[in-house]
Specification:
- It comes from Sinorhizobium saheli.
- InterPro entries: Anthracycline_SecMetBiosynth, Glyas_Bleomycin-R_OHBP_Dase, Glyas_Fos-R_dOase_dom, VOC_core.
- Strand 2 (29-32) and strand 3 (41-45) form a beta hairpin.
- The protein has helices at residues 15-25, 58-62, 78-87, 147-158, 208-217, and strands at 5-12, 29-32, 41-45, 48-55, 68-74, 91-99, 103-109, 115-121, 137-144, 161-167, 173-179, 182-189, 198-204, 221-222, 227-228, 234-239, 245-250.
- The longest helix has 12 residues, at 147-158.
- It has 253 residues and is an alpha+beta fold.
- It contains 5 helices and 17 strands.
- Strands 9, 10, 11, 12, 13, 14, 15, 16 and 17 form a 9-stranded mixed sheet that branches. Strands 2-3-4-1-5-8-7-6 form an 8-stranded mixed sheet.
Length: 253
């Protein structure tokens, strides 16, 4: 599991509205996690739990941190990975701690400030879900502070390898990266108009146009026109009604 994205979490300002939105747009089923002392909603695709939803902590609200999706990357040892991350120029924002009966995690940023989490679960991991199955996260994209130094950082930390590189002209190189030989995402140096580096997660839907219609009617704002990408899939990027950035990917319009 080391270097594999294993969980996704939305921290937002209106959990009930977000729950209804993603249930409709992505097709997830929802249920309360039953965690003592906190409200935490689980999003599932079929039998597979994919993501979680929670209210933004008070500290984040006070700092005016916007709602956002956070990806959790599996590691063999959270404490060791956090130390390696720090030595590589990253920052540990929430030191490693245990979630009873779930696992151990830390919230971190890469050297340029893109946020993600480190995670080591308790017990046996669940059976893997097909990366392109409806409702799963089909692609992980980093708008990096600098492509070369970012790739070296993540490769050292997670063992990711370079796959195909695409020349995007003035936008620079889009580097696809792989985990255990399977392409799982891409990264590029962020355009000048993008103020901060960030991770973006692409949720699989069966048909893009219908999902866009559902998203728009639910209050989402589209950030681009639907675009066909190499391999024939179609994508769109958007913000949800609370302002969290997300993306959709489908095999057809």
């Amino acid at each position: 599991m080391h270097g594999k994205f294993v969980w996704y979490e939305l921290m937002t300002t209106d959990t009930k509205a977000a729950e209804a939105f993603y249930k409709d747009v992505v097709g997830w089923s929802v249920r309360d996690a039953g965690m003592p002392g906190m409200d935490y909603t689980l999003f599932s695709a079929g039998e597979h739990q994919v993501a979680g939803l929670m209210t933004m902590p008070e500290g984040a609200l006070e700092m005016k941190v916007p709602p956002a999706w956070l990806g959790y990357v599996g590691v063999d040892d959270v404490d060791a990975a956090a130390e390696k991350l720090r030595a590589g120029g990253g920052t540990v924002h929430r030191s490693p701690e245990d979630i009873p009966n779930i696992g151990r995690f830390a919230i971190v940023t890469d050297p340029h400030g893109a946020a993600f989490a480190l995670f080591k679960g308790q017990g046996e991991p669940p059976p893997p879900m097909d990366q392109m199955a409806p409702g799963n996260v089909g692609w992980h994209e980093l708008m990096a502070g600098d492509l070369d130094t970012a790739f070296d950082f993540y490769s050292s930390l997670f063992g990711w390898t370079k796959d195909q590189a695409m020349d995007m002209g003035e936008m620079g190189v889009y580097q696809i990266f792989a985990h255990n030989g399977q392409p799982i995402g891409g990264m590029m140096t962020r355009p000048a108009e993008v103020p901060n580096p960030y991770w973006l997660y692409y949720f699989n839907v069966e048909a893009l146009d219908a999902a866009i219609d559902r998203a728009k009617s639910g209050g989402a704002k589209m950030l681009m026109e639907p675009m066909e990408v190499p391999g024939g899939a179609w994508i769109v990027q958007a913000t949800d009604p609370q302002g969290a950035l997300f993306a959709l990917v489908a095999p057809k319009r």
